[in-house]
Design brief:
Blueprint: H1 21-28, H2 34-53, H3 59-73, H4 86-105, H5 108-130, H6 132-161
Helix pairs in contact: 2-5, 3-4
Length: about 160
Amino acid sequence: MGIEYDNLTGIPAGCLPGGNAEEVTSESEPTMSWRQQAQRLHKEAHVFYFAFKHPRLPWYARLVAACTAGYLFSPVQLIPSFIPVIGFLDDLLVLYLGAKLLRRVTPPDVLTECRQLADVAELRRREEIRSSGAIVAAIVIAMVWLLTAVTASGLVAAYISH
């Protein structure tokens, strides 16, 4: 029948370890944890934010992004969010479809540039979190809260005992 090629690399399937492309992709793709998926979603949100601000983004792509965000934050929705499961499912569906459509209508070079900007922003955020000033500030805030809790407990105990 001819040579079968892996769809992504163009390498003949017989040359890949395991014999065929299906076995290779199933072995090489680890399952993502919830935390990794949340981080990926956070990064995609940054990409879309930078894309929305990009000067070469077409007006209709901005309209898609604005309508998607507007629907999610609007109190008036087709299925209200306070309905237990279905309310959030329609929000998830609108978010998914909006992201897919935005990816399609955004020029690839703009998306690439925005992904690079999102990577830089992520690195900068991680550096800021790891800075010594942030660590000292977190410790000081924790100490103030602890001191306030101990003082309040002491005052309540003194009030109850009298």
